[in-house]
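I hope you will forgive my troubling you with a question about protein structure. I should value your view on which stretches of the chain appear to form regular backbone elements. Here, with my thanks, is the record as I have it:
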Amino acid sequence: MMELLSNNIFFSAKIQLTFIVGVFSFIAFFAGCLFPQIASFCLSIFVSSEASEKAEKLLQPYRHLIGLAFGLGFLEIVALFVPILDDYPVIEKIISFILTIEACWLVIRIFGKYIDDSILESALKSGRKANSELLNLAKYTAYLAIVFVGFIFFAQTHNINILSLLASLGIGGVAIAFASKTTVEQLLSGVVLYIDHPFYIDDYIGLPDGTFGRVESIGWRSTKIRTSGKGTVIVIPNNSLTQMNIENFSGAKKVISILYLNFNRKVEAKEQALIEQVILSSTKDIFGLDSRSSRIDFRTINHQDEIRSQAQVSLFILGSGKVSMELRRQLLEMATETINQKLTGYGIDFNIEEPTIYVDAPVTI
């Protein structure tokens, strides 16, 4: 009889304890839901209102997940320290496992939103496009790291032997990495390009092999460049780009120098080709002049009832400073004298309109 009464008292104590734990778990959940406001209030007092607004904007969408983490955390503490659950150790493991999954998911969501907001803010300030492919690679790598840390923590706190599992994963990882050595090199090179930023999407770059064009995308394994003139797309592996000397023209100053050559007669097609060759050969060695963009356009004009030809020479001078730009203009004037001497030697009479027109313009992308 006494034993039965003792069992009833013990069972009644379990019910009461369960009720109390449930009430406090709900309170913990409610406190977790209010955590974004509490954190924002504390930051506004001790840090700044800007940090307070950012924290609330970051945490508020996940207040219910935070509340669930608080509630599960309280249950985990109860399961660890209340003796009444000693007979049911599996309950603590289940609660801990659910808490681990929920915590990893919460951290992933908050981290992903923080990265997206930071990248968007940075892109708006800089005026450049964000590299979505490499950002996704970085985010998913971070997600895997978060899950891995959560799994290790759960295993260590519950005396689960993971050394054998990690060893097998390590051997398998080495085998996979060895089998896909080139792919791994390209992925790592993509990370290097993202960290060093030798160029961004939409930048205008030149490579040692003569490739010249606009960067369309920077992927995990390769980069796509839209070539100038042809308009074709060249796909270059990232591990090749990290070993090249890359010339980035974006942000540089460009001056269009326009010369007008007036001929005393109509210039035939063969002579036009000769004139074009002389102009290009005389200007190609000018430092900072983009000879690939040089243009010579011939047109026929009527001068006092005489048909004559005129050539418009458009030369593109790239530079970054006032002094260097002035130096290149002087070099261009010397090249003009060379053109004059060579064409005169071929018996082609002309005169150059003065003054030479210089037009400041951004680099065409």
User: Anything to note?
Assistant: The beta strands are 204-206, 212-218, 222-227, 233-237, 247-248, 253-263, 295-303, 306-319, 350-352, 357-362. The chain has three domains: 1-174, 197-248, 254-361. DSSP finds eleven helices and ten strands in the chain.
